[in-house]
Amino acid sequence: MKNNFQVVLTVFSVILLLVGFVTLSKSVDLARDAQFEFIESVGGIVDSATSASVLNGFIAINVAKGGILFLVGLLFLCLTLYRLSKDEKPTM
User: Fold this and answer.
1) How far are the Cα atoms of 1, 18, 65, 69, 77 from residue 5, in angstroms, in the given order?
2) Cα separation of 77 and 92, whole Å?
3) Which residue in 55, 65, 88, 83 sits closest to 16, CA to CA?
4) d(CA 76, CA 19)
5) Do residues 24 and 63 make contact, with C-beta atoms less than 8 angstroms apart?
6) Could you tell me which residues come within 8 angstroms of residue 26 by beta carbon, excluding any fewer than 6 positions away?
7) pTM of the model
8) What is the Cα–Cα distance from 22 to 1, expressed in whole angstroms?
9) Residue-wise pLDDT tens digits, 43-57
10) In degrees rounded to 5, what are phi and psi of residue 19?
11) Are 16 and 69 in contact (CB under 8 A)?
């Protein structure tokens, strides 16, 4: 039972790590899509300063979200692998 939990936690950690990495690497594309949706929602006419400010805000949000997911996934993965290596030491 304990080993199953550690395997599930390892898989969950890897998933968090990958989602965080993809979010970080695609942050500009995701922000640009969100910017277009925002511009369409306000009627399609926005000045360039507002558009740039909205884009920078969405990029910052995606970088923060991706960074948090990546770091939490990496932390869980390191802790889980440490626990697995600690539990599997040979006994004399």
Assistant:
1) 6, 20, 26, 20, 13
2) 28
3) 65
4) 14
5) yes
6) 62
7) 0.81
8) 32
9) 888 899 999 999 999
10) -65, -40
11) yes
